Amino acid sequence: MKIYHIFLLLLIFISGMGFNNLINAIEISTAQIETKNQAEDKKIEDIVKEELPSIIGIESYFSNGKINASGIIFREDGYIIANYHSIDGAEKIYIYFQNGEKKEAVLVGKDSQKDLAVLKVDKSNLPIVTFGNSDEVQIGQMAIAIGNPLGEQLSGTVTVGVISALNRRLKIDGYFMDLIQTDAAINKGNSGGALLDKEGKVIGINTFHIPSDKAVGIGFAIPSNIILETIDKIMKIK
């Protein structure tokens, strides 16, 4: 009987140690999850802080009014990528930086079939975007849209969502394109703004959205690989 009691006490002691270790493991795991979530939340903020200066606003003036849009700086010496539909036929084009500075821009070249254009401003040492590989984009991954919906008053607006679909074949201004679909909010004026991945790399340029009276959370972006190929051609013949 005495041996039985000793064995029972030993079993309880060992069980207690196991229970404590289990509790400690749970506490460590919970702390790791909380730390990971905090790091992810902070990373979005870091991405925005780093990339926002390379996203600009565009004001295109026509004889009958003005169009607001967005663009991205891809070269330090003042070269900017924009959607062609936002500047097509403009008499004057101005861009504004996130600090409010405005500069007149000139059209360097365009590809209307890809809805892309290159603008140039007389300014150097500008912050530039980094491009990602759109062929590696996966459905469900995080997407960050940065642009200027409705113009300068709402410049630098950031929305976060996911990649909803890939290779959406849609017709833009008479030409078919394979686009990235996202539920990150894209509004009028966002055209030409950046669609970023979780590393802050440009995986697309926001180009249009389905109006809210027809659908909610359906926007589209031109994939980065198409952008790079098109811009390379434009720059070679400029």
UniProtKB/TrEMBL annotation:
Keywords: Hydrolase, Protease. Pfam families: Trypsin_2. InterPro entries: Chloro_Bact_Ser_Proteases, Peptidase_S1_PA, Peptidase_S1C. GO terms for biological process: proteolysis. One of its GO terms (molecular function) is serine-type endopeptidase activity. This is Trypsin-like peptidase domain-containing protein.
